[in-house]
Design brief:
The structure is a single chain. 42% of the residues are buried. Helix content is 32%, strand content 17%. It is globular. It has helices spanning 2-9, 32-48, 61-75, 79-83, 121-124, 130-158, 164-167, 251-256, 274-277, 309-312, 320-332, and strands spanning 22-24, 51-55, 94-96, 112-116, 182-188, 205-208, 214-219, 225-227, 236-237, 245-249, 266-268, 281-288, 295-296, 318-319. An eight-stranded mixed β-sheet has the order 1-2-10-7-12-5-4-3. It has a four-stranded antiparallel β-sheet with strand order 6-11-8-9, with no helix packed on it. Strands 13-14 form a two-stranded antiparallel ribbon. With 342 residues, the protein is an alpha+beta fold. The chain has eleven helices and 14 strands. It comes from Drosophila persimilis. This is GL13684. GO terms for molecular function: metal ion binding; oxidoreductase activity.
Length: 342
C-alpha cells in the first residue's frame, strides 16, 4: 500500500501541476456575494479550461463512501438478480455490465455502472437492497441541491437577465421521460495482468464529451481519468484531489453559450502503474441536464447576444431531448441506450 501511494504521488497530473482551477463553494451558502464569486470563477474556469475542482461543497466523504459500499453490495449479488435490473433499450436507468457499452463500437470498456434517473423504488432497488435505496436517495438529493446552487451561480456568472436558466432545470431526477439528469454509480474492476486478455486493447471508458449542461464527478483515487484541454489534442492525466468534486461542461452548455463554455473531451484509460490498475476504482457522476422540452438555441445564455442572419439562417433549433438523442445517434448509430460516462 505504501509503495502504491508513492507511485501514485509521482504521476505528472494537472492537479499536481496546479493546472486545474479550484473553487471554494463555502458549503453552498446562498448569499449574493458567494454565488456571484462562484459564478465568476466558474465562468473563467469553464471558458478557459472546461474543468474545475469544487471544494467545501457540503457533501460529506462518509456519504460518498457509503454509496460506493452499497454499490459493491449490489455487485456481490448473484448474476440472475443483477439481470433483473439491467438497463433496457430506450431507457437511461438500470445496471450496465462490463462490455455492454463501447464508445468506438469495438474497444472493450471495463466497468460496472448503475444509472438512477428518478428517486423511486424501481430505480433504487428498495425491495432487494433497502439500505442501498436509503443511502443513494440521500446522496442523490445532496447532488441535486449542489447542482441547484451551481445553476444559480452560473446564472450570476453568465449575467442572464432572468432566472429562466435555473427554471429550465426544474425536473432534475424526475425521470428520463421529463429530464435526462442521471446519478451514475461506477466501478472499474482491478486489472490483473496475469489474466489473459483482460487489459489487452481494453479501456476503462472511451473518449467522449458529456451531453448535458454539466457533470459533477467524485472519485476515490487516481484511476486513469484524462482530458484534452481547450485548444489541445494532447491527453493529460487529471489526478486526484481528495474530497473535491470535479465539474466539466457538457455539449448542451457549449451550444447554449455558443462555445464560450467548452464540452471537454475525456476518457478513462487503464493506468500504466501496476499498483494503480490492480486496485478497483469507484466514482460517482451526476449528469445535470435541462428539462427535455427546453429549446436549446445557440448563444441563448449570453446576454445582449446579437446573431447575424448568416449565423441563424440555416440553424436548426432542437429541444434538449432531441439534441441528446441526436448525440446518442451520432455516437452509437442507434437510439439512446444510456447516458454519459466518467
Amino acid at each position: 500500500m505504501i509503495k502504491s501511494k508513492i507511485v501514485e504521488d509521482k504521476l505528472d497530473t494537472l492537479v499536481s501541476s496546479n493546472a486545474v482551477p479550484i473553487i471554494d463553494l463555502e458549503n453552498c451558502v446562498y448569499k449574493q456575494s458567494v454565488t456571484a464569486r462562484v459564478g465568476q470563477q466558474l465562468d473563467k474556469a469553464l471558458s478557459e479550461k472546461g474543468i474545475a475542482l469544487l471544494v467545501n461543497h457540503g457533501i460529506p466523504d462518509e456519504k460518498i463512501k457509503a454509496a460506493w459500499d452499497q454499490f459493491d453490495h449490489f455487485l456481490d449479488l448473484p448474476a440472475e438478480v443483477q439481470d433483473r435490473y439491467k438497463r433496457k433499450d430506450g431507457t437511461n436507468y438500470g445496471y450496465v455490465s462490463p462490455g455492454m457499452e463501447r464508445f468506438d463500437g469495438k474497444t472493450p470498456e471495463l466497468r460496472h455502472t448503475y444509472n438512477i434517473c428518478k428517486l423511486d423504488d424501481k430505480n433504487l432497488l428498495a425491495e432487494t437492497l433497502p439500505k442501498f435505496a436509503k443511502t443513494i436517495t440521500e446522496l442523490a438529493l445532496d447532488f441535486h441541491n449542489l447542482s441547484q446552487f451551481i445553476l444559480w451561480a452560473m446564472h450570476s456568472g453568465l449575467g442572464t437577465p432572468t432566472n429562466d436558466f435555473v427554471r429550465k432545470h426544474s425536473g432534475l431526477l424526475s425521470g428520463d421521460d421529463v429530464n435526462m439528469t442521471t446519478l451514475r454509480m461506477i466501478y472499474y474492476p482491478a486489472i490483473v495482468d496475469d489474466e489473459p486478455g483482460q487489459s489487452e486493447g481494453a479501456i476503462r471508458c472511451g473518449a467522449h464529451v458529456d451531453y448535458g449542461t454539466f457533470t459533477l464527478l467524485t472519485q476515490d483515487s487516481e484511476g486513469g481519468l484524462e482530458v484534452q484541454l481547450p485548444g489541445s489534442e494532447k491527453w493529460e492525466r487529471v489526478g486526484h484531489l481528495p474530497g473535491a468534486i470535479l465539474i466539466n461542461g457538457g455539449e448542451i452548455l457549449s451550444i447554449w453559450t455558443k462555445q464560450r463554455y467548452h464540452a471537454l473531451p475525456h476518457r478513462v484509460i487503464v493506468p500504466e502503474s501496476v499498483q494503480i490498475r490492480s486496485r478497483g476504482r469507484h466514482s460517482i457522476a451526476y449528469f445535470c441536464h435541462p428539462d427535455n422540452s427546453t429549446m436549446i438555441s445557440p448563444g441563448d445564455l449570453l446576454p445582449n447576444q446579437t446573431e447575424s442572419a448568416e449565423d441563424s439562417s440555416d440553424e436548426k433549433i432542437y429541444n434538449a431531448y432531441e439534441l441528446i438523442q441526436k448525440k446518442f445517434s451520432d455516437t452509437y448509430g442507434q437510439r439512446s441506450q444510456g447516458g454519459n460516462e466518467s
